[in-house]
Amino acid sequence: MSKFHSILLVFSAFLLLQSCSTNQKISALKPEPDDASPLLYDNSPSFINLPISIKLKDIENKTNSLLNGLIYEDNNIEDDDIEIKVWKLAPISIESYNNGAGEKIKTVLPLKALVKYRIGTKTMGVELYNTREFNLNGIVTLISDVGLNNWNLNTRTTLKSLDWNESPTMIVFGKEVPVTYLVNPGIKLFKSKIEKNIDDAIAKSMDFKPNVLEALNKICTPFQMNETYESWLRIVPTEIYSTNAKLKNDVFLLQMGMKCTMETWVGQKPESKFDASKIILKPVTKIPNQISSNIVAVSTYNDASKIMTKNFSGQEFGTGTKKVKVKNVELWHKNGKMVIALDLLGSINGTIYLTGLPKYNDDKKEIYFDQLDYVLDTKNKLMRTANWLAQGLVLRKIQESCRYSIKPNLEEGKQTMMGYLKNYSPMPGVFVNGTMEDIQFQKTQLTNNAILAFIKVNGTISVSIDGLK
Predict the structure, then answer these.
(1) β-bridge partners, 177
(2) Following CA atoms 58, 62, 64, 67 in sequence, which dihedral angle do they give, to the nearest 10 degrees?
(3) Would you call 13 helix, strand, or coil by DSSP?
(4) Predicted model pTM
(5) Which DSSP state fits 207?
(6) HSE on the CB side for 279, CA within 13 Å?
């Protein structure tokens, strides 16, 4: 063998060895994502029970804040021959009253009144009137039936009794003359005005719509359930149901229920969808105590990719000197399946592509990919350049990291939600309590940019209003 051929042989052997020790590159064709359905899905509505309790003491306090000093004035004597001015002399007391016909409200109103009563006629254009002026000072007791109408607690009040602190008097020739025998029968002439005044004051003090809507706004503001997984719960109410208000032991009980949708987002905090103007109050006769919440866990491909990339951190796949590490994972949808792109570094450099069907493991509470396999072009190139990487054993090891556990954020979410059910106060005077059972998985659904997991939660919720503002 000539010296030239010997050198050429050695050089060729060197190149061969050098090529064997150099990392190989793979350039598989990327399966382009298809245009799957947009992020619109059928989210079954949830029904949450919201029993509300309001103390009579709160109504009393607010009624007293609304009625001070001169609480009623009628200066038009022409319409009914009466002018009335009524002053509140001391705080009004409101308590429950039961005469055997059900719970009612008893209102005790210390007042003084100045009443002008006109007697006479108008004949042939000539006015023949005699006006009398009465000074009243006493305690009025009123009884009210209670109802609910368009977010307001409304009452039908009737005057039960009027006890005079002083005998009613009438000014005669500049002097006060007792006229109890005249005034008592005449009470019916203006009692309806007092009754209406009390009804109006209670109605104003018990417009609880602002309280309820503000509490709902706080509850429906998306809140973070898990910081590590960046998961958020969003509640979007659509309708509010309410039974009639009932009075029991100085407390108003109002059974309310909320129809809403519930979503769990993974990633950035979603925007609130609460719109008070679209909330409709519907009267019903009965609301079940148990809540049923259907929640959609929305995991975008981008955020799931980040979590799966963490799963591969520090792992090597292969044997001997033939090993690779996964530096990055990317997910997208194609033809009803998930494409998983793995960026490799090691004996093989480049990107390989796998496909699989997302499934849910109820025991482990995780989303995994069934029927995971290399995309055809990737498999063909691996068979030619890195058959060891195409083997089923390596694929199974890779598949173990191609999973997205939602158990931590389900458990964390449950604990976080429980924190909102243990005397949680979204605003002063409003307290939320309740219980929650285990989370039940329903199904998964793919869209063009997210994996949707549908889950169901049962439990109870109660909301109490203690101190109306």
Answers:
(1) 170
(2) -150
(3) helix
(4) 0.52
(5) B
(6) 24
